[in-house]
Design a protein that fits this description.
70% of the residues lie in helices and 2% in strands. The termini are far apart. The chain has helices at 3-14, 18-31, 33-42, 46-58, 67-70, 74-83, 89-99, 107-114, 120-133, 136-145, 151-164, 170-176, 182-194, 201-208, 213-226, 232-241, 245-258, 260-271, 276-289, 295-300, 307-320, 326-333, 358-371, 377-382, 390-399, 403-415, 418-431, 437-445, 451-464, 467-479, 484-493, 497-509, 512-522, 528-537, 543-556, 562-566, 574-593, and strands at residues 339-343, 351-355. It is mainly alpha-helical. The chain has 37 helices and 2 strands. 47% of the residues are buried.
């Protein structure tokens, strides 16, 4: 039987009952690109298309799993182009969405046609596709879509501006802040914040006082992202006056970014509120500030009637590092479970018992680990058998840095309880104890160890960082299995040259998926070698890899990458140009603050 016959037979299975459909779909996935083209050409009826998408999930993929092969199949774009003219709206919408995944110069023209479709759903997906294309034509079409008759389309266009608009879209987005549709105005505020447009600060301050909650919240978030000091006083005013908790929360976050010293007094005053949600927000925000002036007020709220407030106060005191919290926290760790029936699903007669105090015990356990008092070792060890707090207790025992705590963790590791072992493995990595290396290596080489557990063990060994531990991780990298990139990333986080060397080799010779994964791992590694590899990724042949690298460099915040990012400002891909411009602005703002 040749390939085409296999595909036809598999499609017959897909059209049959559920169990056989899954088998047929798996065959189609294995058959590759041509099978995808047949799927796309055959599934012109919505029920068949829906079935194919559902089968993608059922067989272990995503709703667009079968498109992974279509990207490299020349027939796929023709099938999707035909789909844009299908009488069924849902198929036209899906075709527009799918075209965004294909890197072909014809796509922009097809999406330009789809953005004029009579159905808003199709126009929305066309905007998504144009956003992915990121060229000059996309910018013009998306800007025009800001005036669409449907507010969902306008909102989608405002969101897309953060990827393809840049400074060119400043006036369009500022004007959209006064759009009568709240979702459009909020999307515009969000884009101005992501793009860090300083010219929009005055307009965003005005939007901050809007009675439309979503707009005011988005404006507060945007002002925090932009980082202009003119927003400090308006944010304090909003923090004191608004009754909208979401707006207040965003204002607090923005104020903490812009002027942490000026945020202390308003937040301490908020702790005295009768509204438990506001007290909770205030306690959490004070913990972020880590200012000892708040300690006295927070200690009083460890016994708050609301469990959420008590938990936030515990976390805050741990962040501040005030030793006066130790005795109250030890008492909270031993608090009895308070069971309360919680409804499950929509059936009014089905309930389960939920321990409402488990959050408080977890908060106390975490706080005790941060405070670093070894008196907490025995109390924390007694909670390792409590599934609701075991992970937090194990982590705290590791943070205390005492070998007595490590011995308790190793005893659990040898017990073999699967749920506890996972928590303990992660905690042993945090402990960095050499005594944990051999037990972890035994677990790594055991045939009974699952692939997910192997990743946890590799991470733990890398964090411990002794010569034996590093050699064990490097042995996995040499094998090149699916855990190799994870293993290399863990070593790289700790500055090991072997980790960076492996990530660099994958960045040069791996397939697109592997290269993208490497860049995403580097996103979280603040090290000069990580910056060097990301700069190298800026020249990758894949626009997806380049885009992730641009964003990662903006996030890491190393000013040495500015020159490399500036070289992208004249590139062909508008989306990458906008991302580069945004990253450069963020880096320069950070440099100015330093």
């Amino acid at each position: 039987m040749n390939e085409d016959q296999i595909i036809v037979a598999a499609w017959d299975l897909v059209s049959d009952d559920k169990e056989r459909s899954v088998e047929g779909y798996k065959i189609l996935k294995e058959a590759g690109g041509s099978s995808t083209a047949i799927l796309l050409q055959t599934a012109h009826q919505w029920d068949e298309l829906q079935q194919a998408r559902w089968l993608g999930i059922y067989a272990g993929g995503s709703p667009t799993d079968f498109l992974a092969h279509a990207i490299n199949d020349p027939r796929a774009i023709d099938a999707l182009a035909d789909g844009l003219h299908d009488p069924e709206c849902h198929f036209r919408s899906f075709a527009a969405f799918a075209l965004a995944e294909i890197d072909d110069p014809r796509v922009a023209g097809l999406l330009a046609e789809a953005i004029r479709d009579e159905e808003p759903e199709v126009r929305q997906n066309a905007i998504y596709g144009l956003q992915r294309q990121g060229d000059e034509r996309s910018f013009v079409l998306v800007t025009a879509a800001m005036n669409d008759a449907d507010e969902r389309v306008c909102s989608a266009a405002a969101r897309a501006m953060r990827w393809i608009g840049g400074v060119d879209s400043t006036q369009v987005l500022i004007l959209a802040l006064s759009d009568p549709a709240e979702r459009v105005a909020a999307s515009a505020a969000g884009s101005l914040g992501v793009l860090a447009i300083t010219e929009a600060v005055d307009s965003l301050i005005e939007a901050l006082h809007s009675e439309r909650g979503n707009l005011a919240k988005a404006a507060a978030d945007a002002l925090g992202n932009i980082g202009d000091s003119h927003a400090v006083t308006p944010l304090i005013d909003i923090l004191k006056t608004t009754d909208n908790l979401y707006v207040r929360s965003s204002a607090a976050r923005a104020l903490i970014k812009l002027a942490p010293e000026q945020a202390i007094e308003p937040l301490i005053a908020m702790l005295r509120c009768s509204d438990h949600l506001k007290r909770n927000l205030a306690a959490g925000s004070l913990g972020t500030l880590r200012d000892s002036r708040a300690a006295d007020s927070l200690v009083k709220f460890l016994s708050d009637d609301d469990p959420g407030v008590a938990r936030s106060a515990a976390f805050a005191l741990a962040s501040i590092g005030d030793q006066r919290a130790i005795d109250p926290l030890l008492a909270l760790l031993q608090i009895e479970p308070r069971m309360q029936p919680i409804k499950i699903g929509i059936n009014p007669d089905v309930y389960r018992d939920e321990d409402m105090n488990r959050h408080i015990r977890n908060a106390a356990a975490k706080a005790l680990g941060k405070l670093g008092d070894t008196w907490a070792i025995e109390p924390l060890a007694t909670t390792l058998g409590d599934a609701s707090v075991a992970r937090t207790a194990a982590s705290s025992l590791a943070q205390l840095g005492d070998e007595r705590g490590v011995r308790y963790l190793l005893n659990v590791l040898r017990s073999g309880d699967k749920q506890q072992v996972c928590s303990v493995v992660q905690a042993l990595g945090e402990s960095k104890s050499p005594n944990a290396v051999m037990p972890l290596m035994e677990l790594l080489t055991s045939e009974a160890t699952s692939s997910s557990m192997r990743s946890y063990v590799l991470s733990a060994l890398a964090r411990i960082g002794t010569q034996k531990a590093v050699e064990a991780v490097e042995s996995v990298m040499i094998l090149g299995d699916e855990s190799a990139i994870d293993a290399a990333a863990e070593l790289a986080k700790l500055g090991h040259d072997s980790g960076f060397a492996y990530l660099g080799s994958e960045l040069k010779s791996g397939n697109e998926k592997q290269r993208t994964r490497v860049v995403m791992k580097l996103h979280f590694i603040s090290h000069p070698h990580a910056v060097d590899l990301l700069v190298l990724a800026l020249r990758d042949r894949s626009s997806v890899v380049r885009l992730y690298a641009v964003r990662a460099l903006g996030k890491i915040g190393d000013k040495s990458s500015i020159e490399s990012l500036e070289a992208l400002l004249n590139g062909k891909n508008r989306q990458i140009r906008v991302a580069a411009s945004t990253s450069i602005r963020r880096l320069k703002i950070r440099c100015a603050r330093e």
